[in-house]
Structures are given as C-alpha cells and as structure tokens.
Amino acid sequence: MKKKKVLVTGCAGFIGSHLSEKLIAKGYFVTGIDNLSTGKLNFIKKLKLNKKFKFFKIDLFKQKNLYKYFKGNQIVFHMAANADVKNGFLNPKKDIEQNTIVTHKVLEAMRKNRIKRIIFASTGSIYGEPKIFPTKENYSFPIQTSLYGSSKLACEGLIQAYSYGFGFDSTIFRFVSIMGKRYSHGHLFDFYKQLLINKNHLNVLGNGLQKKSYLNIEDCINAMILTINRNKNPIEIYNLGTDRFITVNHSIKTILKILNLSPKIYYKGGDRGWIGDSPKIYLDTKKIRKIGWKPKKTIEESIKETIEFFNHNKWLFK
Fold first, then answer.
1. How far is it, in rounded angstroms, from Cα 275 to Cα 210?
2. What are the φ/ψ torsions at residue 34 (nearest 5 degrees)?
3. Residue 190 within a domain
4. Average pLDDT, the chain
5. Are strands 235-240 and 169-175 parallel, antiparallel or unpaired?
6. pLDDT recorded at residue 154
C-alpha cells in the first residue's frame, strides 16, 4: 500500500522538525511549511536533503494563495503557532493572528483541497485554572486567563465545527510543556541563557512553587504517530503528559545539579510566572493510555536531555 502524503505546518520548529523526521522514517512524503520566525533551518538541514521532504518558507497568516501548497496531501499536522506564550498581553493580536486566524486559513485550504484529516497541537493551558487534578479532557472550562490558551481554545472550536460541517476527521492533542532535543523556548531555555551570562545569578518569574507536568519530545511524537489512523469518532481529544508533576524549584534544582552551579536565586512576582500563567498544570492521560501509549522518559530525564542539547548547541543563545 502506497504511503500517504502529509503536510506539517511549523515543520522547522521544536515539535514540527521531530514530527517530520518520524513521518519520513515511517515512509510518508512530507510537505513542510514554516515562516522561520521561531523555527530553525538548522533543525531541518538533514530533512531538506531527503527526497521525501519538500519545504516552503511561507507565512501562513500573510500568504494569500495558501490552498495551492496543500494540494495532493491527505493529512495535515497543524503544529504552527505563536511560541511566545508569556508575552501575550504585550502584543494582544499575535496569538489571535498566529493561532486562531491561521488555523482558520489552514482549515479553508484543507476544505478547498478536500483534505479531511487534521491532527492539531493544542495546549493544557485551555483548562485555565482548574480545580480538579489530574484534569480530564471533559473538564468544564473555567474563565480563560491566557490569550495563548484562549486562542488555542478558539482553534479547537473551529476544528470541531469544520469536522461536523464538512466531514473532517480531527485529532486534538492538549500538551503539557514539551522538553528534549531542539527545545528552543520556555523556562529551561530562559534559565540556561541567564546562567550563560552570569552563572552566579538567576531570576525566576513567580515564587518557584508553580506545579507543572512536562513531557519528552519523543513521547509526544510517538503519541501523534500512534493516532494517525485511530479515530473512532469525527473528533478525538487527547491529553498528553506524564503521570506526575514537579515544582519550578525542583526543575531549577535539577538544572543546577547538572550544570554544577549554585547561583543566588531571585524570585519576582507572586504565585505565578506571568499574567495568564496557571499555577498548576497536571493532566489526566488515561484516555490515550488505553490505546497503548505511555511516556518512556521521566521529567528529570527530559530536563537532562534538554540541558545536554544546550551544552552542544550554544549557537541558539546568540
């Protein structure tokens, strides 16, 4: 049986580049799209040499004739998004443009090309500040506190509407924070960058007691690959995360032990890192575990892998 052709938005990003590699290893032909605002050409350097990979540098928000790039594909993995989560309120339109409006444009390009299958990268942030942990997929949504989370929730709504209105087959993944090789933004990146500048000083947003669950990039990709052809319903929503969480302080302690550093730590803010930051994210993953997925790496192993990647790729911090 001939393998399908798939399209990956955000293909040069942290998640998208790993996903593209895995899909090609599985025999798929991949069309990759990225505007390289946060994605790195270095992440897809080897991919670009592969005859099964075709890359287009395109801004999904600005591109007018987007549908022509989707032609001939059967599945769309929509990974592209604004990666600057914490600064959403400094540029309020960015999350709406790069997440919500771009998702609508992707769905329209799919509809015009009669592509029925979409796999979407959402976020655990859409749960706002839940009262029940671990949080299940059917948890009632509280008031949204994050522009990033609310824009992703709007994306989910659009995908669900297209699924019912146009017969799309949709899988939505709600991620916790992902770690591992090619990690290029987030708290580990910020801490490491600070310590490169001054190994004796570390600023921390919040009080360090925020509780977060993290997942390794390989475990994340394995989940998406597993569910390519597994939908029982027009819309399937899966939480992705580990079965535990750690505090930001524990994360810092792990980083400093790996780097053999002992800086003075300065906490800035109250019980959260920034406006819209949820003090606790811990997702229930029983649903996806029932179909045979489970994470293989611990949070600490993922932190170590990420720091080792930084040690060998300091060009990221220039």
1. 13
2. -160, 145
3. yes
4. 95
5. parallel
6. 97
Q: How many domains does the chain have?
A: 2
* Euclidean distance between CA atoms 182 and 257, whole angstroms: 21
Closest by CA position to 160, among listed 114, 115, 104: 104
Give me the helices (H) in the chain, please.
14-25, 67-70, 92-95, 102-112, 147-166, 187-197, 217-226, 248-259, 286-289, 299-312
Task: For Cα atoms 42, 43, 48, give the angle at the middle one, nearest 5 degrees.
Answer: 80
List pLDDT tens digits, range 253-267: 999 999 999 999 999
Q: How many CB atoms lie within 10 A of CB 308?
A: 12
Contact assessment for residue 131 and residue 78, using Cβ atoms and an 8 Å cutoff: no
Residue 253, SS3 per DSSP: helix
- Let me know whether 262 and 164 are in one domain: no
Single out the catalytic residue among 69, 148, 183, 192. Answer: 148
* Block residue for tokens 């505007």: 35
User: Has 139 been annotated as catalytic?
Assistant: no
Band the pLDDT of 276: cuts 50, 70, 90: confident
* 122 and 42 together in one domain: yes
- pLDDT tens digits, residue range 283-305? 999 999 999 999 999 999 999 99
Say what the pLDDT of residue 83 is: 81
Phi, psi values for residue 110, rounded to 5°:
-65, -45
> To 10 degrees, the CA torsion angle through 154, 160, 166, 171?
110
Q: Which of 6, 26, 305, 315 is nearest to 181 (CA)?
A: 305
CATH number of the domain that 190 lies in? 3.90.25.10
Mark whether 231 and 207 lie in a shared domain.
Answer: no
Cα distance between residue 170 and residue 24, in whole Å: 21
